[in-house]
Input
Amino acid sequence: MKVDLFDFHLPEELIAQTPLEERTASRLMVLNKEDGSLSHSHFRDITNYLKPGDCLVLNDTRVLPARLFGEKEDTGAAIEILLLKQEEGDTWETLVKPAKRVKVGTIITFGDGRLTAECIGIKDHGGRILEFKYDGIFYEILESLGDMPLPPYIKERLDDSERYQTVFAKERGSAAAPTAGLHFTQELLKEIEDMGVHIAFITLHVGLGTFRPVSVEDLQEHEMHAEFYQISEGTARLLNEVREAGGRIISVGTTSTRTLETVATANDGRFSASSGWTNIFIYPGYEFKAIDGMITNFHLPKSTLIMLVSALAGREHVLHAYETAVKERYRFFSFGDAMFIL
Output
């Protein structure tokens, strides 16, 4: 299967640069995965498409303010750091700009010396292993010094960093937000629970690889990046109870989908508590074990995300929906509108 099969024309002005003032004010396209039919609504009315006994699965990861601006201790040269993954203790895998200025032994200071980092290794892909030194609590210092690592297609500055966090974000560790969850408010979640819909949480820390373009022509040659996930005993038990009672499991976002499909057993789709790293790549031909529906945003052309959506709803149905979204001037990507696949 060729990557070009998932291409579509997207006018640049439809890429949302800022979030709407009200989270639930985004538009909602509803796609029937069986026949490809479409309807149009607003996210605040999503309760019209949910039923008592359903279960919404949300990713409670929290985005780190992972972009740091510092300078070399010896020369004062400006250095930009992006935290990718905590290796061990205060050692992190990072991306550095300009990388050529940071060799093993280089020391970088941030915030008038409140935080320093020494380069102790270089990765094959050019990333740097940095060991941080500080007084106090690392994450508190990061919150005060770091910037939100917005996706490369967002050019506007974000005034309120919490708008790139879901209202239920809890577990620190993501390099990007699980953006389908950005549409929910606490009030909407309570309304959903009050109508008899279960709410479950999983954790998947989103890596920057989610924005990496597919560089091969044949999908089977693409290697997915690995991301850390966790599903608790309570969440696994709830999902199994929902399934046994005949309720629908609806994942919020591709991250929740990938976690659930990683954990669910092949023969009966049951769930168990688990944690680890997943590099599952879902594209058409995949047989879903875990979910019955999905809430998601509108994704990049030729991305692994539109491939996952196409696996659930059918490539032709999805491309028709995207053509309609362009025609109807829906907003795309992280701060854009939503789609509910049922």
In short: The two ends are 25 Å apart (CA to CA).
